[in-house]
Amino acid sequence: MQEATYQKWNAQVTAWIDEAKANILEHFHEPLDVEQKSGRRDLVTQVDKENEQRFVAHIRESDPTARILGEEGLGDDVQDDKGRLWIIDPLDGTMNFVKQRDDFAIMLSLYIDGVGQAAWLCDVMGNRLFHGAKGLGVWLNDAKMTAPANLPLSEGLAALSGPLVTHDVDHMQAIAAASLGMRIVGSAGIAFTKVLRGQQVCYISYLRPWDFATGKILAEELGLVVSTVDGQTPTVLSYGVVLVATKQAQKAIVAMQTA
Ligand code: 2AM
Ligand code: CA
Ligand code: CA
Ligand code: CA
């Protein structure tokens, strides 16, 4: 993406995110309107829906020919990745928001013909906005980020998802044992930020497009790898067990699937 185009989008999307943050903070000390989706651990609140509705309205106005894939279904019915596609997770880590009022994120990204162009990932309570564009680099707020060290799995912390570890899916317990320690944060967005910053060498979870599309653009721009747990390239419309990792950690994790 051209730098001038990115700067234009960055100014707009940052303003949309500030509005979403303000909406979250308005509801912060009140009981939330919480509904279950697929089960008691899969929640949605009015804040998720209000944020998505506002993002969709802003995108419709600023980028009228684009399609929108939003978790709460207020965008379009997207079945392919052709053309301009915005992918939105209006509140990532809803369980954390409901139970902790901490460790949740807002994620938006723009893809064109399946290729990631620009991404915004906001750690709301940490006041950290990770943003960047293909070919231009990644910023944490106003500071340009440098690529994290390419550490092996054995020399770093591994972020895994609770259900995958509990049921030992895809050798998760062996991966945890091979690392320096396991961490579980409960938000895909926040987990991605820790790998971007070099605090953790991998994050592995069962993810849907809006959970990884934004982090993927930022991670790849910093020399990290995003793949399925068996080493395939996920498309922005795929879902399954997806990882973000240093190159060395990714190799070790993929090798453990066939060992
Ligand atoms: P969400 O909060 O936006 O739904 C931990 O639950 C992480 O996995 C969160 O980032 C959450 O995103 C995501 N996730 C993906 N599918 C989920 C599901 N079916 N139930 C709960 N969380 C899910
Ligand atoms: Ca959800
Ligand atoms: Ca999510
Ligand atoms: Ca969400």
Automatic annotation (TrEMBL):
The keyword Metal-binding applies. Transmembrane segments: none annotated. Mg(2+) binds at residues 71, 89, 91-92, 211. GO terms for molecular function: inositol monophosphate 1-phosphatase activity; metal ion binding. Coiled coil: none annotated. Pfam families: Inositol_P (PF00459). InterPro entries: Inositol_monoP_metal-BS (IPR020583), Inositol_monophosphatase-like (IPR000760). Keywords: Hydrolase, Magnesium, Metal-binding. GO terms for biological process: inositol metabolic process; signal transduction. It comes from the Bacteria. Its cofactor is Mg(2+). This is Fructose-1 6-bisphosphatase. It comes from Furfurilactobacillus rossiae DSM 15814. The lineage of its organism: Bacteria, Bacillati, Bacillota, Bacilli, Lactobacillales.
